[in-house]
Amino acid sequence: xxxxxNFFLDTHIYLKKIANEIxxxxxxxxxxxxxxxxxxxxxxxxxxxxxxxxxxxxxxxKGFSNIISEEGNSxxxxxxxxxxxxxxxxxxxxxxxxxxxxxxxxxxxxxxxEFAIIYDPIADIFYHTYxxxxxxxxxxxxxxxxxxxxxxxxxxAKIYFKDIIKSYTEKIRSRSIGYDVIEAIEGERSFLxxxxxxxxxxxxxxSFLKLLNFDTNLxxxxxxxxxxxxxxxxxxxx
Length: 238
Description:
It is a single chain. The chain is an alpha+beta fold. The chain is about 30% helix and about 25% strand. The protein is built from 6 helices and 14 strands. It has helices spanning about 5-25, 45-60, 90-95, 155-160, 175-185, 200-210; strands at about 35, 45, 65-70, 80-90, 100-110, 110-120, 125-130, 135, 140, 150, 170, 190-195, 215, 230-235. The strands form 4 sheets. Strands 3-4-5-6-7-8-9 form a 7-stranded mixed sheet, sandwiched between helices. It has a 3-stranded antiparallel sheet with strand order 12-14-13, covered by helices on one side. The longest helix has 20 residues, at about 5-25. The radius of gyration is 17 Å and the shape is globular.
């Protein structure tokens, strides 16, 4: 798959259309029959499915034939080239009317991330990685320099990661991995923990955090499936 000129700009325009037509009008305004609970106790809405199907159709038309998505078929991850799709990262926030949600995508090829996208549909801010750089609304940006650690550790994480993050300023997690990464890009969060992550939210997050020069308790930052069962922390080197 070759990323052609205007690919990211066109994708931004398309995601903004989804935000204006679906996400913004419905956030915090869902009826009970539009929300259900999955087997892992996470929430899903009818709009997660609608947006996912829209995104799959859009990217198939762009030439991406191998797609793994949160609400769809996960068997495709066995291939070595695939697009990941998370239609609404932060579904509980979407249900409860909290403006901390994101659309997350990544394109993985041979355990490398060719590009990743995290889109803030409420603020209409489009972040993407490509060619080892980070872009915000299509302008290249540089990683933040942190002077102190800021983030959230639950009681279990404080014990598990006591040798990694010893002193920090607490900032409550957003309950969206994508939005936590946005805060890291903007210098508002210097570490985040990831528990029970799935390929469609971990890999886009990793793409940005790797380029932000964050360290991790992982043995490497390759995009392979062995990471999915781990308790992970990404943190800035001060």
